[in-house]
Amino acid sequence: MTTHRSYLLLCLALMPAGAPADPGCADSAEVSEIADGVYVRWSHPAVMFENDNIANLGFVIGSRCVAVIDTGGSVAEGRALDCAVRKLTELPVCFVINTHVHPDHVLGNAAFERENVQFIGHEKLPRAMALRGDTYLQRAAEHSGDAADPSQMVMPERTVSGEVQLDLGHRTLIVRAHATAHTDNDLSVFDVRTGTLFPGDLVFLEHLPVLDGSINGWLGELGALMRQDFERVVPGHGPCCAGWPQAGQPTVDYLTDLREKTRAWIARGGELGAAQESIEAARPERWRLIDQYHRRNVSAAFAELEWEE
Fold it and tell me: Does residue 297 sit within a domain?
């Protein structure tokens, strides 16, 4: 049977010298094959809306079709990812899976909105997108200079409350909904054939973790993942792959330290404003964007932990 890789080589051999694989894809995203049929568009650490490519995006090629995992921070980024898929295979995209609501993961959805493509997200994702969509689109428009376009906010057609299996043809993806952690709408995606996990933003490397859900829940969900065996893990942000569970440890260490320090601050009767100024990030040499995100993490942790019994 002809594989997608051998098919690509055959096509290239038959092309005139210098002809592009797809004339409509001059702006194709650069991707890396990290396992058989598993590709990643690596990100650059940056503040949201300052760069369209700040989250790791991926796709998995089966014998029947392709699943895309997150689509980037703009329609242009989504189109570049779509071009990367089309340069590697003629198989259609059948699933687009959003791991959570943040704009660097969902604003490229419109590039894949066409017949027979099913958008998949956590059962709480539609509500989160409805609540935040206008703000995200306006912020993105301010950055790009274009008018905000509501059509960019493509909602999931199928939602996940527990676990579902997606058949790509001789390849199964297990999509799992998590309890409130990084957000209240986190999904992870596991490729059974290669043992590759896409945990979304449950795992950060280099880019400081961003707390938008529950610090207790995040530590619980990530702790459960770290007790499982995976061949490789693609973090939501940062490089691949330090091995597993080692790749999850920096996020655990940062959140555990933040929780302990915040609890101690609250127990002493400290106020939020002073906590934001005084509670420092653990192991700052590990992280970029501390100045942009650590204070807000302190605020989110304080709001949750203040009401613990």
Answer: no
